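re the bet — no i am not wrong, look at it urself. input seq straight from the record:
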Amino acid sequence: MTEPLRYPDALIRRILRETKSIAMVGASGNDNRPSYFAFKYLLQRGYRMFPVNPGQAGKEILGVRVHASLAEIGEPLDMVDIFRNSEAAGPIVDEALGLSPPPKVIWMQLGVRNDAAAAKAEAAGVTVIMNRCPKIEYGRLSGEIGWAGVNSRVMSSKKPALMAGFQKFSVEDEG
């Protein structure tokens, strides 16, 4: 039996804080798909998003041009977010590792785990997160997920900072 994956909150928080650009492989323009929700959420949090979906290449998702492959993006990426199944993750990791420079993080979505691909990426110096969603982790660590009555396991007596027009938290370290 495979061991459950555990990642320290400090690691997830650091990744979400340091990441600026994310290629989402398997992004969908269908607003009923989880990848659409995650893409929209991360875009709204200020990440530079690059949707990758060969079947939608050349179209747009939320005003962002869809790419056929990671290589087509043509600029360095901080994170590759894999919104495909576990078997597809292997070739996607191989493609990501072939980029120059490779991404700093490969993140496999909920239900996606490929230990062989993760080991290959980690051997190349890339941080790997599996079976997690950056949207959910951002919401959990920022406290936003608590708005929906979900226990985020993050408690603070500090009043959250407000921004003009809407409430926005961050994943900065608590001080």
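see?? Residues 40 and 161 are 22 Å apart (CA to CA). told u. also The longest helix spans residues 86-97. so pay up
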